[in-house]
Amino acid sequence: MNIKEQLLTLIKSRKATVGVVGLGYVGLPLLIEFAKKGFPVIGLDIDRKKVVNLDKGASYIRHIPASAVKSAIADNSHASATTDFRKISKCKAVIICVPTPLTEHRDPDMSYIVNTSKAIAPHIKKGQVISLESTTYPGTTEEVMIPILESGSKLKAGRDFFVCFSPEREDPSNPKYSTATIPKVVGGIDKASQEVGCALYGSVVVKTVPVSSCAAAEATKLVENIFRSINIAMVNELKMIFTAMGIDIWEVIRAASTKPFGYMPFYPGPGLGGHCIPIDPFYLTWKAKEYGIGTKFIELAGEINTSMPDYVIRMTADALNVRGKSIKGTRILLVGLAYKQNVDDDRESPTYIIWEKLNKLGAKVSYYDPYCPVVRPSREHSQLAGIKSAKLSNINRKNFDCAIILTAHECVDHDKIAKGVQLTVDTRGICKEGSHVIRA
Length: 440
What we know:
Layout: H1 3-12, E1 18-21, H2 27-36, E2 41-44, H3 48-55, H4 66-74, E3 79-82, E4 93-96, H5 111-120, E5 129-132, H6 140-153, E6 162-165, E7 184-188, H7 191-202, E8 208-211, H8 214-244, H9 249-256, H10 280-289, H11 296-322, E9 331-335, H12 350-360, E10 364-368, E11 402-405, H13 414-420, E12 423-426, E13 437-439
Parallel strand pairs: 1-2, 1-4, 2-3, 4-5, 5-6, 7-8, 9-10, 9-11, 11-12, 12-13
Antiparallel strand pairs: 6-7
Helix pairs in contact: 1-7, 2-4, 5-6, 8-10, 8-11, 11-12
């Protein structure tokens, strides 16, 4: 029996130990799913605090209940979490779920993939499958990761171990879809790697979608998020146009959504947030330059979306001016720190951009978000770290002149907040209309 058949047999019998590197919003749900399906699992992360929490059965991600962590790890003799990358040698499958941000010059930051590849390479064994899930530009798996793995392990990809790329498709707090019910795209460096990758993921998800190469799988994820970025940019631009005309964009979208074909609703907002849409399109923009091709459409969408915080501030300033106030000295409450509703994920949140711009204009800024009780440390917004959310009981005219609705958490009574302050700027179209509410 060759190494492929041996690995397929272990996967089919659920005896293949699965290692998940990076236990964040992508890696932790995946680890839990493999544990639920009966696989031995090892979660690996450089953050010791995460490992300690998981060993205790505690969750550090709001939409993942502690009961799921406890069942998968704390109460499971076949599951564990560790910072010891030597445990990679005990795994038959290694799935890499690490961040892929942009540098300050908006170039791909490959440091997490590079450093992770270097960390696991000395511990790779013959007959393993390595799968990369981090969103990246086409060619990363074969041009960046594999050379490091081969150099550090002295093994040959495609001969001694298998390699595939399977882009993450997590949508935190989505009530309809979860890790197990979202089809998984899988591309391998060769036919054997593709077959092994499909067998691995097919054990835990509803469906696998094989594609011809790692590059095709990498490109698939970029297409998905560029599609969203461009359409969001379109409705953001339409919002500005229709607002100037006195037309409610949300009413128009609701009406257009009644067409049963040829239309898909997208919604405007204060800008883009999260780990995907504000970042992923620029990975393709960067790679396209290598081929001498411009990405005008993608870049224009990026320009529109990144301009939205300035639009929100301009609309706020105009509304305050009508009421005889200026932004300077005004007590402004930003409602929502998370980048989207019903999650505690604040990565790339436009709230931070608006907050910092308002600070520079002299406003007295606070925020309220029940899912983000304190601003977490980050290299981008270090000066805001440690600031705590306002208390709901303190949101009134005595403490705030203006509220800007930025995240539409379902657990928040936005109309009550709007009634409690003199002016509310609604960027999500969720407050009841009135003289004290303006749409932006």
